[in-house]
Amino acid sequence: MSIKSMLVIGVAVLVAAGVAYVLVVPDALDRVGVEMAEETAPAQPAKDSSRITTSTPVPAGQGASDEMPNVGVLDLAALPFESGCGLFLSREGEEDIVFVDAMPGGGSDDANGPMPAVMLIDGTLVTFSRTTADGEPIGFGQYPRQVFDSADNTVRVVVEVDFGEETDPEDVPVSAGEVTVMKAGRPTLKFPVSGGAGC
What we know:
Elements: H1 3-31, E1 71-72, E2 85-91, E3 97-103, E4 116-121, E5 124-134, E6 145-150, E7 155-163, E8 171-183, E9 189-198
Antiparallel strand pairs: 1-4, 2-3, 2-9, 3-4, 4-5, 5-6, 6-7, 7-8, 8-9
């Protein structure tokens, strides 16, 4: 017998043994009560989460709630900064101010600079810094879409407004607008606003 013939016979025996194992062994193991391991999916590569931002954790003492954040009326005399020129907003149909942002001392219209803002949320005076300003500037440091974040990053406020025609050089009314309040662990609050930008 040649080596070539022996290799062919060896391969045939191995194939037959493999087929027998696949067909016979599982049935034999079932009969004697041995369970086969379940087929598992192939291992997946580790998920790259380096670009995923997670929500800001809720600070201690502030559990998640199903209640919307409560926005209160501001006392303009008690603002933590000089208002100068800025944006003053009320809930649509009301006169009381619920949002103020301001360039300190009525300063420049620097879109990239921080702009302080304040709201009364859940009975606490929350101060913000502007982190985003989008759209065509109108002066007084104001833009149609602005995003403000609290110092501890637990509250974000988005202000989106349409500005009307200037009634005088120091007053630009808001013809339509919406404020969105996002507080960690709480549902998002949106409400229509009116008001204006000026000095």
